[in-house]
Amino acid sequence: MQTATHLDREHCVRAVRSKDARFDGWFFTAVLTTRIYCRPSCPVVPPKPENMTFYPSAAACQQAGFRACKRCRPDTSPGSPEWNQRADLVARAMRLIADGVVDREGVPGLAARLGYSTRQVERQLFAELGAGPLALARAQRAQTARLLIETSALPMAEIAFAAGFSSIRTFNGTVREVFALSPSELRARAPRTSGPASAPGTLSLRLPFRAPLNPDNLFGHLAATAVPGVEEWRDGAYRRTLRLPYGHGIVSLAPRPDHIACRLTLSDLRDLTVAISRCRRLLDLDADPVAVDDQLRTDPFLAPLVDKAPGRRVPRTVDEAEFAVRAVLGQQVSTAAARTHAARLVTAHGKPLDDPEGGLTHLFPSAEALADVDPETLAMPRIRRTTFTTLVRRLADGTLHLGVESDWPEARARLLALPGFGPWTVDVIAMRALGDPDAFLPTDLGIRRAAGESGLPSTPAALTARAEAWRPWRAYAVQYLWATDSHPINFLPV
To answer: Which of 24, 75, 293, 444 is catalytic?
Structure first.
């Protein structure tokens, strides 16, 4: 499949005719005769090719006057993997839009974060996606509104403002235009659930993904490294606290055969879009596992590892600054020791919160709170204390920024300039916090051991040279190599 800039008509038609779900989110099919747009895997009889036209985004379909299909619900398809595997302007802009920046700061705020003019951002987004930032944000608001309409009993007025609409009138008009149904009609069509009623501010959602998805290393890693008070594994689900733009939240994520069961409790429902975006990013749900695994299978030494358990994802983070701090705490110590260090910081400097289910007690401390920590209270070598204090102060004063909009090479360079930051620390932050799918850890002890046992070169230089064939998916190769070990990070908790 080609990039969204130049959709290949022949490939698109073939995907629609075969109802290939792998391409859901890559592009959308608009039917000229019905004025409806669908995902490629729509279960209805495919239209004639001459009646199909293709768009790279739902926003472009809506802007062209097409309505969302009521059968396949294209607005709920997985996001395009393009935005998580690239670091150019368009990809960074799309990650920011998914994080709700346009709703909170407007298009000028989006452009300022990216370091470009408003006109440049609008022009590049329209050229590649057929829609500008306002239209893309509007499509996202419509999707958020639909979620709230169908999964909550909130009054429509509250839903309108929680989804980011400026008025009830705009909310009603957008929902009717996008879905060809009024908000009340959407609610009436929603399936009824027979389970217990959710607590106020709690929503139960299904997060889609492209199959296959192997949950073992994904949830195993999150559970094995969970910081007490902030994260836990309970009753088959990973739970953690979330720091969000308007308040805080608690999320529960559990793997299911065809989706991730997500339960969100939010102090402010305006954070719903951001919370969903960060949970999808945490679990790498917008990845294209078929493309990744096909590339890695070309190496005869990796092929058996991929065939044994395909669909591994890269466990990421909901807070880039938090992960950077935890990476420093984990330098040259065991997983258990890193958790102990982090738990002490949480107890001393994290913001307390109430968990209706018990178990979670705090938000992970912000960089601003950690910048005031007395280094002498840190139970770590003096050199690592300097590394820690320098990092949190740079994060707190804004001279170092790690976020979804980060330019990966620039962020790497800034991290490498900090005292105590070597290639391993920078690459693990690039892989799990910045989201670089090609980050690689040739000096990691577990990787070198796995490489030696698999017949691959085990010295960093030779392994790096061999890994050139795995580009641009070396971060996924790391997951397959790590999985050869018996460490708890590689197993779904019982």
So the answer is: 444
Q: CA-to-CA distance for 299 and 11, rounded, in angstroms? A: 27
Residue 444 annotated in active site? yes
Contact in structure between 148 and 159 (CB atoms under 8 Å) = yes
**104 burial level (CB within 10 Å; 0-12, 13-18, 19+):** middle
Cα–Cα distances (Å) from 72 to 28, 33, 63, 68, 491, in that order, read 11, 18, 19, 8, 34
Going by pLDDT thresholds of 50, 70 and 90, the confidence category of residue 387 is very high
Q: Three-state SS across 452-465? A: HHHCCCCCHHHHHH
Residue 414: HSE in the Cβ half-sphere, 13 Å Cα cutoff:
18
**Res. 112: pLDDT tops 90:** yes
Q: Which of 284, 370, 357 minimizes the C-alpha distance to 329?
A: 370
Q: Are 102 and 405 in contact (CB under 8 A)?
A: no
Q: In this structure, what token pair is assigned to residue 22?
A: 């792998």
pTM more than 0.90: yes
Question: What is the model's pLDDT at position 135?
Answer: 95
How many other CB atoms are found less than 10 A from the CB of residue 257? 7
**Which contacts of 38-44 are long-range, i.e. CB under 8 A and separated by 24 or more positions?**
38/69, 38/71, 38/72, 38/74, 39/69, 39/72, 39/73, 39/74, 39/77, 40/12, 40/15, 40/16, 41/72, 42/16, 42/69, 42/71, 42/72, 42/74, 43/19, 43/71, 43/72, 44/69, 44/71, 44/72
Four-residue CA torsion sign, 118, 121, 124, 130:
negative
- For 172-219, give the secondary structure using H, E and C: HHHHHHHHCCCHHHHHHHCCCCCCCCCCCCEEEEEECCCCCCEHHHHH
The rounded Cα 1 to chain-centroid distance in angstroms is: 22
- Within 215-259, strands assigned E span 231-234, 237-243, 248-255
Q: Which residue, chain included where needed, has tokens 């959710």?
A: 198
Q: Which residue has the tokens 């994060």?
A: 395
Residue type, 274: V
Q: What is the number of helices (H) and of strands (E) in the chain?
A: 23, 11
Q: What is the pLDDT of residues 182-232, one digit of tens each?
A: 999 999 988 766 555 566 678 999 999 999 999 999 999 999 999 999 999
What is the spatial distance between Cα 251 and Cα 493, in angstroms, rounded to a whole number? 18
Which helix or strand (DSSP H or E) is residue 36 part of? strand 36-38
Contact status, residue 314 vs residue 476, Cβ threshold 8 Å: yes
- Residue showing tokens 């590892």: 305
The confidence score (pLDDT) of residue 2 equals 37
Tokens coding 465: 């040279």
Q: Annotated catalytic residue: which of 12, 38, 61, 279?
A: 38
Residues forming a β-bridge with 214: 312
Whole-angstrom distance, CA of residue 471 vs CA of residue 349: 40
What is the per-residue pLDDT across 219-274, written as a single tens digit (0 to 9) for each?
A: 999 999 999 999 999 999 999 999 999 999 999 999 999 999 999 999 999 999 99
